[in-house]
Design brief:
Blueprint: E1 9-14, H1 23-27, E2 30-34, H2 42-55, E3 58-62, H3 80-100, E4 107-108, H4 112-120, H5 122-135, E5 141-144, H6 149-156, E6 160-166, H7 190-203, E7 208-212, H8 218-231
Helix pairs in contact: 2-3, 3-5, 4-5, 5-6, 7-8
Amino acid sequence: MANDLVLVELNVDAGESPAEPEELYALATTLNLACGGHAGDEASMRAGVALAARHGARLAAHPSYADREGFGRRARFSSPTEVRADVERQCAALLRVAVEGGAVLRTVKPHGALYHDAAQDPELAAAIIDAARRALPELSVVVGPPEGALRLEAVGAGLDYWVEGFVDRRYDESGQLVPRDRPGAVLQDPAACAAQALALAKTGRYRTLCAHGDTPSALAIVRAVSEALRAERRLVPR
């Protein structure tokens, strides 16, 4: 079947913790670097850019609501006008560090509540796309959920849109993510995450699969997922 031939990226949300293992950068094909909204600062961005270069991983900007206290996971935290300014500022900050480190930024992936809110709100989605295009001259890819306003705005702006699945989040029977505040919503078992990664890849629906770097078992999860995808020859090479 055609779906059996689909390859996927393995992306990791990174730059969110001082205890982040370097091996994540060696295993992931793309690192989504926090750039000052929910987490991250100039020092963590510099470290992340350097590690990505060392291990040959691609970089993506990972802007969010300017909500460090809530780790960017509080819904509707800011207005579209505020989001436009915050996302442009965050992406521009990462770009400056990336350019100094010899890296290129072609991808943006909103974080947390902003990611989900933008799928439901065309005005918010438009603010994100406009801000990212202003800040990142080489922007070509937007990563987000399968359907919704963010996808429509990205495609309408002539950008590639990569549908994302999550290896460490539980899905309900309708294929929707189980809210984080419900028991069992976050998967912790590496074997279960690897099995879910293969199942998502085989659907042919997803262009990239995400593991959250702030999950306590993140390194074990990313190892297991990477090994499973490589064994099945489903992981996009760097």
